[in-house]
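call fold(seq) -> tokens
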Amino acid sequence: MNLEQATLGAGCFWGVEYVFRRVPGVTDAKVGYSGGGVPNPTYEQVCYSNTGHAEVTQVTFDPNRVTYEQLLDVFWAMHDPTQVNRQGPDVGDQYRSVIYTHSEEQRAAAEASKERAQDRFSKPIATRIEPLEAFYPGEDYHQAYYEKNGHTPYCHVVPVKELERLGLVGAAD
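ret:
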């Protein structure tokens, strides 16, 4: 199997991971940190000091079952990409909307997808598109947070049920 990866930040990483785990063709999703200058940051450092990192989810997917462009469609639908350094009640640059690309092909696809997505929003999209330099996995207690703790995701603009209705994700287990 030829798997690929996408690294995306759309606010609180718990909700981003939860949504992407439900996309058919996604084989894994891990939360972590990218985009900053501090190697191997901790959650506390990212939240309470100026590391420059964003909370992100690194998605591993089978491109024969789901395309990178389809993952980007889910990304645009799950949050408000016009907000700067916040998503819902979460405020800070660690919650910024960002796409970290793994290749030139991903960069071009992300730019084209952003252009198409802009038609759906009245305000300019603030999402940054940058090459991935490093991904630092989050602590174990953050991985599959909602599944481990039995909570319903609360930190994204579009409820998971709506993404299911739109056919962008599969039903929760």
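Residues 14 and 145 are 6 Å apart (CA to CA).
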